[in-house]
Amino acid sequence: LPPPQRLAVRRLLMRLVTIEDTRASLPRDELINADPAQDSALEALVRGRLVVVREAQDGTVYEIAHEALIRNWDTLQRWITEERETREIYHRLEVAAVEWQRLGSSNVGLWTTDQLVEGDRLEPSNLRPRELGFLAASRVHLRRVRRLKWLTIGSIPAILFVGFVVL
Q1: N or C terminus of the chain with fewer C-beta within 10 Å?
Q2: Helix (H, G, I), strand (E, B) or coil at 153
Q3: Residue 105: partners with Cβ closer than 8 Å, 6 or more residues away
Q4: Confidence of residue 36 (pLDDT cuts 50, 70, 90)
Q5: Partners of 56 in beta bridges
Q6: Which has the closest alpha carbon to 95: 14, 8, 18, 31?
Q7: Short-list 112, 62, 73, CA closest to 92
């Protein structure tokens, strides 16, 4: 495969391995984004029988052909080890974004500064629209909270001055 597709293969396989190092079953729209390299890489994985396509209750899903690939394929094991921390962050982001969406995309459950710093370590091209929206909403909410905090702190001297003048 050409280099862009090799990188896409790695990204696809990482998405198809759960945080517990088991097979994930994902529909195409959750597996790939608009990158044409990912589309052709997925087709190559299916043709090579490393990834299988099957019908599930919710439609067609893709998954790694066998758990043995996850446990015994040295290259995949190395990638999993190299990306362990990133995969954990991505997993936390995915869970938080699903919960945020379930709660109506309100301010409940948005990430704090420290969590956003961790999220910044993720490659945006690997994120789905739901995760990107969650991160954007978290940043907007954080900016609002900061502005309100500074406005409150800035207004305290004015309030004290008015109170002093009135008394």
Answers
A1: C
A2: helix
A3: 133, 137
A4: confident
A5: 59
A6: 18
A7: 112
What does the DSSP 8-state code read for residue 55? E
**Residues 6 or more apart whose Cβ sits within 8 Å of residue 95:** none
Task: Calculate mean pLDDT across residues 97-121.
Answer: 92
pLDDT digits (tens, 9 = 90+) for 118-166: 999 998 878 888 899 999 999 999 999 889 888 888 788 878 777 878 7
Q: Return the H-helix or E-strand segment holding 62.
A: strand 59-64
Q: Which one-letter amino acid corresponds to residue 88?
A: E
Is the distance from CB of 57 to CB of 51 less than 8 angstroms? no
Structure confidence at residue 78 as a pLDDT band (50, 70, 90) = very high
Take residue 36 and report the two structure tokens written for it: 């044409």
Q: Structure tokens of 96? A: 């938080």
